[in-house]
UniProtKB/TrEMBL annotation:
Molecular function via GO: iron ion binding; oxidoreductase activity
The Fatty acid hydroxylase domain, residue ranges: 124-252
GO cellular component assignments: membrane
Biased composition (Basic and acidic residues): 293-302
UniProt-annotated stretches for the region Disordered: 278-302
Subcellular location: Membrane
Record's signal peptide: none
Keywords, alphabetical: Membrane, Transmembrane, Transmembrane helix
Name by which UniProt lists this protein: Fatty acid hydroxylase domain-containing protein
Species per Swiss-Prot/TrEMBL record: Zoarces viviparus (Viviparous eelpout)
Keyword Membrane part of the UniProt annotation: yes
Record-level GO BP terms: lipid biosynthetic process
InterPro entries: Fatty_acid_hydroxylase, Sterol_Desaturase_Related
Keyword rRNA processing: no
Length: 302
């Protein structure tokens, strides 16, 4: 984050915002700047990438699904935009520690323990480490003693849109984001690579909520894509992972996506359309009241 802070200081904050008497290295000034930059960055990434995905990737047919809620997109947006500022508060504490030099982030490839290959290895280890941590944090958030407190709001969206990607309770959002922020305090990582991975994480989080189930054939069983995460939203106790299916397989929570077996949300929509049940409000009402339209078509009618 100090790269972003330096650029913001140089081009905007020092010449136009802060008085010259307030030095760039002042702790309070850094905290205020980080709060503003973190909130701006989160909003730009969430809204920018979300809008691009919503219009270019997300299949709007999914909005006809009985379990797609009334005004769901607006509700997801409102929930996320309310939570993100609260998530930013503890996040900024970690960014501040990073800016003050407590992390293992480095500036140049020369400082990488293994040179260029080290950058590649840190990319792999970042993904594996955060995938493992998020699996267990996510599974913990599903524990019946705390589920209702923090994680339940994210499961309000049974058929998510890309805007569900960041629609979390603030505690839930912070906990699931924590592995990304902790990594550079534990392992060496190039600063530019860290920023690139941060953007990638946001793209990925949106992409597993966009209902586009395509994954290159050979990788289908290894990558936790949108089809896997859709089943997590629908069936709850499966596919807690983020990037890979590894920990779900090890933890006994893997479920082969129903969408890849011809029993997914699109299949239910097609079936209801063929039966003439879409558009008369009946299927929608059943889905909303019972919340189990997909479960019925997947389990009882197979
Ligand atoms: Zn969950
Ligand atoms: Zn989700």
């Amino acid at each position: 984050m100090d790269l972003v802070l330096d650029v913001a200081d140089y081009y905007v904050l020092s010449p136009y915002v802060y008085p010259a008497s307030w030095p760039e290295g002042g702790a309070l000034r850094q905290i205020i700047s980080l709060l503003v930059l973190t909130n701006l960055g989160a909003a730009v990434l969430y809204l920018g990438l979300g809008v691009i995905n919503y219009f270019l990737v997300f299949d709007h047919t999914l909005m006809k699904h009985p379990q797609f809620l009334e005004n769901q997109v607006q509700r997801e947006l409102k929930y996320a935009m309310t939570s993100l500022p609260l998530i930013s508060i503890p996040t900024v504490a970690l960014f501040f520690a990073e800016v003050r030099g407590y992390s293992k982030l480095y500036d140049t490839v020369d400082e990488s323990p293994l040179g260029w290959p080290g950058l590649f290895l840190s990319m792999i280890s970042f993904l594996l480490f955060t995938d493992m941590c998020i699996y267990w944090i996510h599974r913990f958030l599903h524990h019946k003693s705390i589920y209702k407190l923090f994680h339940k709001p994210h499961h309000l969206w049974k058929i998510p849109s890309p805007f569900a990607s960041h629609a979390f309770h603030p505690v839930d959002g912070f906990m699931q984001g924590l592995p990304y922020h902790i990594y550079p305090f534990l392992f060496p990582l190039h600063k530019v690579l860290y920023l690139a991975l941060y953007i990638f994480v946001n793209i990925w989080t949106i992409s597993i909520h966009d209902g586009d189930y395509r994954v290159p054939g050979a990788l289908t069983s290894a990558i936790n894509g949108s089809a896997h995460h859709t089943d997590h939203h629908l069936f709850f106790d499966y596919n807690y992972g983020q990037y890979f299916t590894l920990w779900d397989r090890l933890g006994g929570s893997y479920r082969h996506p129903s969408a890849l077996m011809g029993k997914g949300p699109h299949d239910l929509i097609r079936k209801l359309q063929a039966e003439g049940k879409l558009g008369d409000g009946r299927a929608k009402a059943e889905g909303q009241v019972n919340g189990d339209a997909q479960r019925r078509v997947t389990f009882k009618e197979e």
